[in-house]
Write a structure and sequence with these properties.
By secondary structure, the chain is of the alpha+beta class. It has five helices and seven strands; from the N terminus they run βαααβββαβαββ. Helix 4 links the parallel strand 4 and strand 5.
Length: 154
């Protein structure tokens, strides 16, 4: 079972040492986790960006960065990665499902937003399989932006 855990002094090294495979690195499908954590520091006073270690069976296997906008009622999966040694096991799917559940349970959001870099077809399939719908293409970042409508969950 997937858990999201606060990043602490105890798991910080585990999070920044997570790796994606060489193909994913070369194509810059996800920013390094240390960059994501640095960006969290930049936005720390906004209280709207939340990094988590993705943990299963007590082991850090991934990272997720959530960006919330309560005014717009949007919950965004800003970044997400699963370590190369844990990919192709359904853990990415479980991570996105957990994020959707977190957003839904809060009652504060109508939409979950996720994006992926052009060429990262696996992530695109995963998001669409879970019910995300195409919204736009961000040319500046070379990313597809998809939305998941929480108002349709029963």
């Amino acid at each position: 079972m997937i858990e999201f855990m606060e990043i602490t002094e105890e798991n910080f090294s585990d999070v920044i040492n997570l790796e994606i495979d060489g193909y994913q690195q070369r194509n810059k499908f996800v920013a390094p986790n240390v960059r994501s954590l640095a960006e969290c520091y930049l936005y720390r006073h906004e209280n709207d960006v939340f990094p988590y270690a993705v943990v299963t069976d007590g082991k850090v296997i991934g990272f997720i960065l959530i960006d919330i906008d309560e005014t717009e009622r949007e919950f965004m999966i800003w970044r997400m990665m699963i370590d190369k040694d844990y990919q192709q096991r359904g853990l990415g799917r479980q991570t996105v499902q957990k994020a959707i559940q977190m957003a839904s349970d809060s009652g504060k959001y109508d939409t979950v937003i996720a994006d992926y870099v052009y060429g990262n077809d696996g992530m695109g399939r995963l998001l669409r399989d879970l019910g995300f719908k195409d919204d736009s293409f961000n040319e500046e970042f070379n990313e597809y932006v998809l939305h998941y409508d929480l108002t349709e969950i029963e």
